[in-house]
């Protein structure tokens, strides 16, 4: 696992607050104190990010080969579910899930190497949260999620860990995504299989998943979609029959329908218009 600082450029324990003497109320609360669990928890006055000015924030500042005891656990007001863990003059911030997993309570002792593992776990947790937020808008492929996380500065190792977790939990499934995409695009969006194939390639779906998904779309479904588009185009086109035929066929090909499908559509349109020669379609 790559180190926290190099993978994202934002250290878990960095201090972003002001170093002035002014402090605001209600920014953080000390959950390491028993009074926190009383009906009205004690509130602690700190600076804007919950850090004492004298604290050395950032894992790189921690001493080597030294056991470090947690002196306080502070819940940050913003962002939610994050805590500042202090070791005397040193501090870092972690997500609530990471804090609980590693039992980071007041008095617990850790070495710097152990804290590096914890910070890496926190990085994975934040990357996972970013991915879930991205997925909340609509389904995505693994490629799209990886691209998004990369844009946000996460390391390749963290991205792969996040993707593996998302796949194991069923949040990401490229095969199912491709099948749903192909079905919707052909049946409801009037796109041919060639168009859909290109779209799925751009989304980073593997060739095998694409072929499997397109195989699930029946020839009749694709033909019906092309026929409806072709009929609409034919009725909206003026000029000589051969000119209308050329424009309609070219339109369907631009929508990703194969030459065989276009020929079948032109033949059907010819039958409806009682015209000969409509089945002779030359691919352009």
Topology readout:
Blueprint: H1 4-8, E1 24-30, E2 44-46, E3 56-57, E4 68-69, E5 72-76, E6 82-87, E7 90-95, H2 96-101, E8 109-110, H3 112-135, H4 142-151, H5 156-168, H6 174-187, H7 193-202, H8 207-215, H9 219-235, H10 241-254, H11 259-273
Describe the structure.
- This protein is of the alpha+beta class and 284 residues long.
- A six-stranded mixed beta sheet has the order 2-1-5-6-7-3. The chain has a two-stranded antiparallel sheet with strand order 4-8.
- The protein contains eleven helices and eight strands.
- Helix 6 packs antiparallel against helix 7 (193-202).
The number of strands is: 8
Overall pLDDT confidence: 82
Strand order of the largest sheet: 2-1-5-6-7-3
Given the helix and strand composition, which structural class is it?
A: alpha+beta
Largest sheet: 6 strands, mixed
Q: Count of helices?
A: 11
| Helical content (DSSP H or I, runs of 4+) | 40-55%
Q: Rounded to an integer, what's the Rg over CA atoms?
A: 30 Å
Through-space gap between termini? 53 Å
What's the SSE pattern? HEEEEEEEHEHHHHHHHHH
